[in-house]
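#struct-help
A.M.: can someone run this one for me? Single chain, 403 residues.
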Amino acid sequence: MVKIDPFEVDHWILTRSAGVKHNLAHSYCSAISINDLASATGDCNNETENVWSSVFAQPMSYGPMKGSAALRSRIAALLYSDPSAEPLSIENIVTTPGGSLANFLVLFALLGPGDHVVVQYPTYQQLYSLPAAIGAEVSLWKAHQEDGWRLDLDELRKLIRPNTKMIALNNPVNPTGAALSRATLEEIVKIAREHSIIILSDEVYYPLFHSVSPTPPSIISLGYDKVVATSALSKAYSLAGLRVGWIASRDPSIIDLCVNSRSYALITMSRVDEHLASLALSPPTVQHLLDRNNTLSKRNLQVVQDFINQHSSTCQWVQPVGAPIGFVKFEKDGKPINDVEFCTKLLEKKSVLLVPGSKCFGDGNEFQGYVRLGFGEETEHLKASLNAVHEFLEEEYGNLPVF
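D.P.: on it. Structure tokens below:
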């Protein structure tokens, strides 16, 4: 049996979210309904009616093995059409049920025992726990809050080994909301090219860079074929329930390997989900969704910053520039608070759900005192949630243990 570590963040949320009043554990922008999606098409677009007619008339066969051509065409046009790069063919895109499965298929297809992977850290646990479960060696390329969560490129060079097969990135970064700039990405590509290393970039929050300009590019546009980008509609587009993600690469052999692993796991996608996803990525709908979520993220970012300013003796963060999430460190008397106990008591006393960093993004000794805070919900709900946290800090914080 393959030994795989518990997926701590999902288990934490799954076992605690039922009935919670203030959910700050979500990592996506406030979800929209299918009715909202239909409304977003605008009066000038009759595609809503056409999509539903097509859904009802469509024979429920397996459909295209790589996914809907219409959907893949829109993904290519939206995300991988940098004018400085060659256009990406739809044959270089494969759809999947969500971004997590996209990552799973890429890692399963491309890695094996004896391979070595360098993984940006902190990041989504899947990107380092799954390679380890497959039998690969994993080195963590660590960023630190005191450096603004910036990555040290010299450190990356030191981590490269003769058997290094992959560098795994996440941009924007979960849980910090940091961004890898074009200059940083170009240097990573240069290093990878020198050693013929594959780059996997989890871009599930792309292009939701709400507070940085210019927007960093997708890894796909930087002129190196041995790159793979994964993404989904869940985070930046508020459609987690559709379960539509994708894999993109300029290397046909990488796509072929991913299609093969995909065939073992699911054969093809839901044709209904793909039709709705195609609607979401149609103009002007997609621009409406991105404008809405960038505006929401910017507004809510200021709400959280005001809260942190109010409690500056207790908590701090590096202000996120992408994604509706941030990594907040709580301290008491100069020592990190026990973040698991903090989150447990906060949920018990005020029905506020946060994600403890030392449990869900580290090994228990790292990220002590940190919590991931999601600020993608509607602004009035966010304010009510932070008011509840404020009350807890006033009433209970002095009694919490530290590390």
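A.M.: thanks! The longest strand covers residues 325-332.
D.P.: also worth noting: The chain has two domains: 8-33+287-393, 61-282.
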